[in-house]
Amino acid sequence: MPLVALGYLSGSWLGSLTVCRLAGRGDPRLAGSCNPGVSNVLRLYGLRLAFATLLLDAVKGMPVLWLAMGLGFPPWAQGVVGLGVLLGHSYPVWHRFRGGKAVASAFGVMLVLAPWVALVCAACWALLAWRVRTAAVASLVSAALAPLASVWLAPEYTGVVIAFTALVLARHVLNIQRLGRGNEPGL
């Protein structure tokens, strides 16, 4: 399916690398948690660059998803294109398959496919990040909430949301281990 490959390619553009280069900052994969995601950019370089990273990582897959929707793909096929975006972000060929954890990219994909689910999960993430001050906890709980929210708000996408959740949770295995040991970095 050509759109899945296009989704992968769009997803493999790591927004944090572009943002940090343009701002004259170092590669976030070489400092902090060594992850090219929003949380590491926030800890290293502040809110402005983290927000720019979030924006780029969320919107990068939207055009290919709109194309899939415009071509009349059924929900499961749209989800496969979205999964291509998330796999591209998590395992970008250009960066020796060292990518991010796909939380911001999953938000962007779900914003197109199941917007109410995305907004519920984003609100959950923001509330937990504010109260718990740990991005991993906010990400894990929000990801786990997504399938439940989709059953209620977007039942036709529940299967693909479960696949997105499985990928996000799998990408957080090291965070889960650090949380268990009590040494997961805060925000």
Automatic annotation (TrEMBL):
<keyword id="KW-1208">Phospholipid metabolism</keyword>
<dbReference type="GO" id="GO:0005886">
    <property type="term" value="C:plasma membrane"/>
</dbReference>
<keyword id="KW-1133">Transmembrane helix</keyword>
<dbReference type="GO" id="GO:0008654">
    <property type="term" value="P:phospholipid biosynthetic process"/>
</dbReference>
<dbReference type="Pfam" id="PF02660">
    <property type="entry name" value="G3P_acyltransf"/>
</dbReference>
<keyword id="KW-0012">Acyltransferase</keyword>
<keyword id="KW-0812">Transmembrane</keyword>
<keyword id="KW-0808">Transferase</keyword>
<keyword id="KW-0444">Lipid biosynthesis</keyword>
<dbReference type="GO" id="GO:0043772">
    <property type="term" value="F:acyl-phosphate glycerol-3-phosphate acyltransferase activity"/>
</dbReference>
<feature type="transmembrane region" description="Helical">
    <location>
        <begin position="106"/>
        <end position="130"/>
    </location>
</feature>
<protein>
    <recommendedName>
        <fullName>Glycerol-3-phosphate acyltransferase</fullName>
        <ecNumber>2.3.1.275</ecNumber>
    </recommendedName>
</protein>
<dbReference type="InterPro" id="IPR003811">
    <property type="entry name" value="G3P_acylTferase_PlsY"/>
</dbReference>
<feature type="transmembrane region" description="Helical">
    <location>
        <begin position="75"/>
        <end position="94"/>
    </location>
</feature>
<keyword id="KW-0443">Lipid metabolism</keyword>
<comment type="subunit">
    <text>Probably interacts with PlsX.</text>
</comment>
<keyword id="KW-0594">Phospholipid biosynthesis</keyword>
<comment type="function">
    <text>Catalyzes the transfer of an acyl group from acyl-phosphate (acyl-PO(4)) to glycerol-3-phosphate (G3P) to form lysophosphatidic acid (LPA). This enzyme utilizes acyl-phosphate as fatty acyl donor, but not acyl-CoA or acyl-ACP.</text>
</comment>
<keyword id="KW-0472">Membrane</keyword>
<feature type="transmembrane region" description="Helical">
    <location>
        <begin position="150"/>
        <end position="170"/>
    </location>
</feature>
<comment type="pathway">
    <text>Lipid metabolism; phospholipid metabolism.</text>
</comment>
<comment type="similarity">
    <text>Belongs to the PlsY family.</text>
</comment>
<keyword id="KW-1003">Cell membrane</keyword>
